[in-house]
Design goal:
By secondary structure, this protein is of the alpha/beta class. The chain is built from ten helices and 17 strands.
Length: 408
């Protein structure tokens, strides 16, 4: 799949590229600067991607955990391949559809961090390549029964992680007793293998306030206690998996897992952070333990995503209309943040106050005029990548040195 993606011919389906007869793999040879692209465009800074990958890989090794990053964040075969090359234990998907395409990319182990109860999804699991190692979640006896009915004849069982939740949160058993009932049903069901326990600590506010940290700490500790309870139910499985997913609190999760009781088999501890790869200028910059000013001994993540757009109009003093909008930028958590004006080192005092579908309202101090190129930072990468089917890679001189393809 990576080779097919690289060989894909360029054309007007990629809205940010000028006319060119090459392929996705040849973009880095076109000699483009970022201003040769059709703006608006989102770009990725290659040096930041390399830095963030190395930092998080090193931190996982020092913390004694494996990593199954959220491939759903980028849905890019090029970026997922880089994560596997850096030592990722597996890749996390949110849906069967994502797991299917990740298998096509050559991912050997996929963790579907969700319950699978729909008949088409279960049919795919029943007939999936036995060489693909698949994990799925369960939080109810009813869900387990649906899986068992569909997967009972599968030649190799599907690994199931019992999901623990919190009241008012999303999926997940609401108590340890409920989780144990689910685990017992999994252990007794054909086509399924009880593999461990899972949670998503991002259900707590991602602000690193004392109350949020206390909730995450309790949740992660409860999950560790649950996986200890599962030890006697997991049959002859060689190891149990203990996993949580999120980019705001991996440090708290790891700390809560340090003192596991002695069990009859090893426990593989897996974090599933995905936002680390690009970091951002908003949500994760406020919440990540690797954010600027967090004083983490492992270092600081660098924002890799930027949005480039022209000032199209200046209809009123102090108001610039820029040529990007909701179709181009994330806006579910924070509006984009103006960083600089291309071609000048002067500070840019500006604020995005509103987005339409394809226009941004930018209030400024008089420093913007028609034709200026504004560079903006973005928040929450999960809702950036899905807007762009091809994202150029830039070096630190703003030259286009490659591109990544996305498949949402």
């Amino acid at each position: 799949m990576l080779a097919r993606s690289a060989a894909e011919p360029l054309g007007p389906q990629f809205r940010n590229l000028p006319d060119h007869d090459g392929t996705v793999a040849s973009i880095g040879d076109a000699g483009w600067q970022v201003t040769d692209l059709l703006l608006p465009t989102v770009t990725l800074r290659a040096s930041a991607l390399a830095h963030n990958t190395a930092l998080f890989t090193r931190w996982c090794a020092e913390s004694g955990v494996d990593h199954a990053p959220h491939g759903k964040t980028t849905m890019s075969p090029q970026l997922v391949a880089g994560q596997l090359d850096a030592g990722a234990w597996g890749i996390t998907a949110a849906t069967v559809a994502q797991a299917r395409i990740m298998h096509d990319w050559g991912v050997p182990r996929v963790l579907i961090a969700n319950e699978v109860v729909d008949p088409p999804g279960l049919r795919w699991l029943a007939t999936a390549d036995p060489e693909l190692e698949v994990y799925v979640l369960a939080d109810s006896v009813e869900g387990v029964d649906r899986m068992a009915a569909a997967l009972g004849d599968r030649p190799t069982p599907v690994s199931v992680l019992v999901e623990l939740g919190v009241p008012g949160g999303r999926a997940g058993a609401r108590s340890r007793d409920e989780a144990l009932a689910v685990a017992r049903r999994v252990a007794a069901s054909p086509g399924l293998e009880l593999a461990g326990a899972e949670c998503f600590e991002g259900v707590y506010r991602q602000d690193r306030a004392a109350e949020s940290l206390a909730g995450v700490d309790r949740f992660a500790a409860d999950l560790a206690a649950l996986v200890a309870d599962l030890d006697g139910l997991a049959g002859e499985r060689a190891e149990l998996v203990l996993t949580a997913g999120g980019s705001a609190y991996p440090d708290r999760v790891v700390a809560a897992w340090r003192e596991l009781p002695a069990l009859s088999r090893p426990v593989r501890k897996v974090v599933r952070s995905g936002g680390y790869l690009t970091h951002d200028h908003g949500m994760y910059e406020r919440s990540s333990p690797f954010a600027t000013g967090a004083q983490n001994p492992s270092g600081t993540l660098r924002p890799a995503l930027e949005l480039w757009a022209y000032v199209l109009s200046s209809p009123e003093p102090g108001l610039a209309i820029c040529g990007f909008g909701k179709r181009d930028a994330s806006y579910d958590v924070d509006l984009p943040v103006p960083l600089r004006r291309l071609g000048t080192g002067d500070p840019l005092h500006a604020t995005v106050v509103k987005l339409n579908d394809q226009h941004a309202f930018v209030r400024h101090d008089g420093g913007l005029t028609v034709g200026d190129v504004v560079v903006l930072g973005l928040s929450h990468p999960c809702t950036v990548f899905d807007k762009w089917s091809l994202i150029p890679l830039l070096d630190d001189a703003d030259a286009v040195v490659g591109a990544v393809r996305t498949y949402f």
